[in-house]
Amino acid sequence: KRDVGKMAFVGSCAWAASGAGGETALSRRHGRCVVRGGRGVRGGRSAVAMAAAQPETTVTDLYSPFWSYAQEVLRARLPDLDDYPIPDGYVHKEAMTGKGARQSLVTTDSYGYCTGKLRQIRTAHVQGGKALQVLNFVMFPDMKYDLPFFGADLVTLPGGHLIALDMQPLFHTDDYKKQFSEPLMPAFEKHKVNLPWGGDFPEEAKPFFSPCFLWTRPSEDETVQTHVFEAFKDYLNKYLDYVEAAEEVTDPAELDKIKERQLAYLSYRAEKDPARGMFKRFYGDEWTEEYIHGFLFDLERKIEDGSYKVPTGSAA
After folding, report:
1. Are 214 and 157 a contacting pair, CB within 8 Å?
2. Residue pair 235/187 in contact by the 8 Å Cβ criterion
3. Is the C-alpha dihedral spanning 214, 219, 221, 223 positive or negative?
4. In degrees rounded to 5, what are phi and psi of residue 153?
5. Which residues does 176 contact at the CB level (< 8 Å), separation at least 6?
6. Are 34 and 43 a contacting pair, CB within 8 Å?
7. 248-252 long-range contacts, CB within 8 A, separation 24+
8. d(CA 254, CA 314)
9. Torsion over CA: 286, 292, 296, 299 (sign)
10. What is the pLDDT along the chain (316 residues), one digit of tens a residue?
């Protein structure tokens, strides 16, 4: 029996279900994935060259339109949008996985931005043809603001799709819910009609979800391209509404609470990240751990090396 709960953690919720090695090799062409059946190395030819020599079939590139839309909206609505540094060796990564006819090319592309109110806006886009497509898009607010985290985890596997959208709350007080969950509730109610609940998730993860957590497992590509895409747009734009309206917190006690909750969230996510096993299979232990701690969930590292100064509201 599958552990559905472990696949449901938004941000990288379903990556653990990706399994090892896919069945196809992937390259991108005009919003479509061009897939070639892979074979082993023969006569000194590389695996990539052998894969490239195979007949092509097409696989719909589901999540590039999501990220293209997000980038357009971010540029339009965040006037101070700037690049966020990505460590060397992590902007693009690829590997051949599997053996024989099951050999496939998996690529991971990383993107990073930031603003005065958003410490890190980052995306990991994993493509592996029919075997795997993932878009993991998260926004981490600066610690001077009590904003929730934005998380979109869009995963496609051979057996279907695993979709999670949410604004993970810092706090669960009535005032916080009124400020951030209640305005989002109409969108949640609208979209859950076409995107029904996908199943239970771990008890330990529940403090990191809002009442508007949209978690669903559609079976058809068309549902992802229509209903999921519309929900993604609504959640993203509502979050940016919150960002635009956010006011800086200056009270030292409140800033301490924000720091505590952000670090708890990041520590949990880095420790429990279900993508770890998948990335280790594809790219090895060293690359994976550095990617998780040096980019995906890098706040502790940034604080330790002094590149991010924790706001205190008064002298430290």
Report:
1. no
2. yes
3. negative
4. -125, 110
5. 146, 169, 170
6. no
7. 248/144, 248/145, 249/144, 249/145, 249/146, 249/311, 249/313, 250/313, 251/313, 252/312, 252/313, 252/314
8. 12
9. negative
10. 333 333 334 444 444 333 333 333 223 323 333 333 332 333 344 444 444 444 445 678 999 999 999 999 999 999 999 999 999 999 999 999 878 877 889 999 999 999 999 999 999 999 998 779 999 999 999 999 999 999 999 999 888 999 999 999 999 999 999 999 999 999 999 999 999 999 887 777 778 899 999 999 999 999 999 999 999 999 999 999 999 999 999 999 999 999 999 999 999 888 888 789 889 999 999 999 999 999 999 999 999 999 999 998 764 4
- Cα–Cα distance measured from residue 20 to residue 278, given in angstroms and rounded to the nearest whole number: 7
How crowded is the C-beta side of 17, counted as CA atoms within 13 Å?
26
Strand partners for 151: 138, 166
Q: How far apart are the first and last CA of the chain?
A: 51
Q: Distance of alpha carbon 178 from its chain centroid, rounded?
A: 26
Give the C-alpha distances (Å, rounded to integers) separating 158 from 69, 221, 281: 25, 11, 18
309 φ/ψ angles, rounded to the nearest 5 degrees: -95, 120
Q: How far is the C-alpha of 268 from the C-alpha of 221, rounded, in Å? A: 32
